[in-house]
Amino acid sequence: xxxxxxxxxxxxxxxxxxxxxxxxxxxxxxxxxxxxxxxxxxxxxxxxxxxxxxxxxxxxxxxxxxxxxxxxxxxxxxxxxxxxxxxxxxxxxxxxxxxxxxxxxxxxxxxxxxxxxxxxxxxxxxxxxxxxxxxxxxxxxxxxxxxxxxxxxxxxxxxxxxxxxxxxxxxxxxxxxxxxxxxxxxxxxxxxxxxxxxxxxxxxxxxxxxxxxxxxxxxxxxxxxxxxxxxxxxxxxxxxxxxxxxxxxxxxxxxxxxxxxxxxxxxxxxxxxxxxxxxxxxxxxxxxxxxxxxxxxxxxxxxxxxxxxxxxxxxxxxxxxxxxxxxxxxxxxxxxxxxxxxxxxxxxxxxxxxxxxxxxxxxxxxxxxxxxxxxxxxxxxxxxxxxxxxxxxxxxxxxxxxxxxxxxxxxxxxxxxxxxxxxxxxxxxxxxxxxxxxxxxxxxxxxxxxxxxxxxxxxxxxxxxxxxxxxxxxxxxxxxxxxxxxxxxxxxxxxxxxxxxxxxxxxxxxxxxxxxxxxxxxxxxxxxxxxxxxxxxxxxxxxxxxxxxxxxxxxxxxxxxxxxxxxxxxxxxxxxxxxxxxxxxxxxxxxxxxxxxxxxxxxxxxxxxxxxxxxxxxxxxxxxxxxxxxxxxxxxxxxxxxxxxxxxxxxxxxxxxxxxxxxxxxxxxxxxxxxxxxxxxxxxxxxxxxxxxxxxxxxxxxxxxxxxxxxxxxxxxxxxxxxxxxxxxxxxxxxxxxxxxxxxxxxxxxxxxxxxxxxxxxxxxxxxxxxxxxxxxxxxxxxxxxxxxxxxxxxxxxxxxxxxxxxxxxxxxxxxxxxxxxxxxxxxxxxxxxxxxxxxxxxxxxxxxxxxxxxxxxx
Length: 859
Hints:
Blueprint: H1 3-17, H2 33-42, H3 47-60, H4 65-80, H5 115-118, H6 184-191, H7 198-202, E1 208-211, E2 226-241, E3 246-255, E4 258-265, H8 269-273, E5 279-289, E6 292-296, E7 299-302, H9 305-310, E8 313-316, H10 325-339, H11 349-354, H12 360-368, H13 373-403, H14 414-422, H15 430-443, E9 450-455, H16 461-474, E10 478-482, H17 486-501, E11 513-516, H18 522-533, E12 539-542, E13 556-562, H19 569-576, E14 583-588, H20 594-598, E15 605-609, E16 620-623, H21 629-641, E17 645-649, H22 665-676, E18 682-685, H23 691-703, E19 708-711, E20 724-730, H24 737-744, E21 755-759, H25 765-776, H26 780-791, H27 794-797, H28 815-831, H29 841-851
Parallel strand pairs: 4-6, 9-14, 9-15, 10-12, 10-13, 11-12, 13-14, 16-21, 17-19, 17-20, 18-19, 20-21
Antiparallel strand pairs: 1-8, 2-3, 2-5, 3-4, 5-6, 5-7
C-alpha cells in the first residue's frame, strides 16, 4: 500500500477509536489536506479520487457525529479502491503486486493492424487532466507551442472506462486527435457526444442496427415485415397538405426486382439531401396503402460499399452537427479493431464463467460490429450485466455503510402495544400487521432502521407509521414526520392527533404532537422549537420547515419521510443529522415494480402493503371520448346533487398565449363555473397559490362548502376527502399510469361507489389502448409494471442519484438479468465486501468509476 494511503488510513482508524471527535490530528483532519493533495498528485492518483478525499476531509471538521461516522467509512472505501501506479519516478518503488487472477484467462492475439497507417499521433489538445496521465510523443519543434485549455462539458462515466494503469494500455487514454482524420475541429464536435478519448469511443455504443444480413429484395417483402431494403432512388419530391401546414415527401426506390413507395412527413430537407440515382438503405415496417406495399417514415441512409459487400449487421451511432454516420463507422471500426482486445476484464473470472458471459474484449467487438445476431445478443447481455452488477455492488455498499452504525434499541410491553392497536377505529389488515412487525424487529436490532414502506393508495401506511412513532414516544424519545407539502402535512397532523390524543386513555396529550410548516406564525414556531428542544413534543409533523437550523431536538430517534421521492438526498440527510443515528422509515404511495425494488431501492429493507382495508369498493374507471365530455359532466352533477363532491384535474396551471388547447386549470375553472356548473361552488387549486390560499381552499373542500375542486397535479398524493366520489382527468394521455392511479386514489376513500373518468386529448387508438389498462385493474403494482415498460424508470427514481442514469445497455424491466446480477453481486460482497482480494482489485476501480463521486442515497 502506498505510504500516503497507509498513513491516512491510520489516521482514520485512530479517529474512529477516539469516538469521531476530530482529535486524530492536532487541529483537525482537514489539516492533512495540503499534504495529501501534494503527495497524491506526485503518485499520479486520479484527480477525481484526490478531490473526493479532500472534500470529505474538509467536511469532517464541521460535520455532526453521525455524519462523521459515515465520512470515515466513505474515506476508507475510497482509499481501498485507489489503484497502485505502475511506476513513480524519483520515488521508492512499491512492492510489485501479483497479477490479478482475472487476467489469467488467455487474451486472443491482437489483429494485424499497422499503427502508422491507422493511427497518427498529434499533440494533445484542449484536454482536461485525465484520470490516468497520458503524454503522447511531441513532434520536433524549436519553441514549445502554448496550448489553450478548455473546460469541457461534464462527461458521461461508463463502467470500465477507468482502470488501474498497471492493467490498462496507455493508448486508451489518448485524445481522439491521435486518430487519422480527427483534428482539433472534429475533436470539438465529438465532445458534444461526450467523446474525449479512445476509451470513450470503445463505450460509445450504437443506438440502433441495420441488419443487412437479413435484407430482402423488394419482390420478397411482405406486409408487417420490419427490415432493411437496399435500392436506388427512382424519384423523390415534396408536396403540401392541409393547406400547407404539412409537407409530405414521397420517394420511390427500386432494385432489379421491383419498386417500393416511401413517404415521410415534415422532412422536406430529404429532398435536398437525396436525389434520383442515389443508392440508399431504408429501415422500417412494411405497411399497405390502397393495396400496395409501402413504408411510412423509415430511417434512410446513403448506402456504403462495405455494408453491401460484407452483408453484415451495421451499427447506427448517435450523431451531432458536422459528424456523419459514415465517418463515425470508420473511426469506430478503426478504434474497436485495434483496442477492444487490449481492455482488461474487471469482472472476476468465477463470476463471468458462472453467469455464462462472453469476455469483455469480445463484447466490445461484437456490440459495435457483430458477426451475427446471436453474437450481438451475447455482447449486449454482457454489458448490461456489468451495469446492473456494478449498480448492485454500489447499492450493497451503501446498505452496509448504513448498517455499520449503531442505533438505540426500542421495545415496549406487548400488552401495552396490543392495547394501542385495539384503540384503532378499524382492524388492521394482514399487510399492515406484517409491516408493523417488520418495524418492531428493526427497532430492537441495534442498527438504524432504513426501511421503505410501500403501499398502494389507501392501504393504510400512515397508521403503520403512527404506531411506530407512538412506540418511540412511549419510551420518551421523539419522532419527526416530514411531508412534501403543507396540505399533506396538515392532513397527517389531523389524522395523528385524532388517533393519539382523543378518547379515553389517549396515549398522548395535544401539546405532545404539533405541526410545523412554513406558514406557521413566527410566535408559534418559537414555542414549538422550545418544546422540541426540551422534549415536551414527542411527535412533530411538518414540511421542509423541519430542516431549518433553529429546529433542535432533545432526542430525535425516529424519522418518517412521506412521499420520499419528493425530497432530495441532502434534505433527508439533514433531517437524520438532527438526531443520533435515528431510525428511518420512508413511505411511498407509488407502487414500485419488482425490478426497481431489487436495484434502485436495493439498499432499503422493503415492506409491501398490497392489501386494502375491508369495505373499500373498487373504483369504476372509464375512458371517455373527448366528444362525450357532457356525459362526464352529467355524472358529476348527479353525484353532487346526491351530497358528494368531485375533482376535475388539468395538466397545466395557465394556458400560454400561443395555445388554444383547453387543458389549463385557471381558464377551465372560470369556464366550468360560468357555463357548466353555475349552480355549484367550484374551488381552484394549483402550485402557484400561496400556502394560505391552498390551505383555505382545502379547508372549504373538506368541510363540503366547495362542491367541485378544479386542480392540477398538486392533489396527486395525500389529499383525503372521503366525501369525494368522482375524479375527472382531462388530457389524461399526458400523465403516466402510476400518476393517474394516484389521482384515482383521491376518491373511493369512503363507503360509497366512486368513479374515475379519463378524457384524452384525442381519440387515437394508441393512447386509448394505454389508458384502457386503467379500466382493467385497480392494482397499482400491475399499473407500475406497465408504466415502467411504456415510459421507463424516470417517474420512479425521484432524486435517487449516481449510477441509475448510467444504464445505457441494461433495461430495468429485465427482472431475470437483474436477479442474476444481484445474486452474483451478493456473493462477491459477502466474501470480500471491501474488494481487497487480488482478483477484485480491478472491480474496485470499476466500481468507483461507475458511481463517480456520488454517495448514492441511503434514504
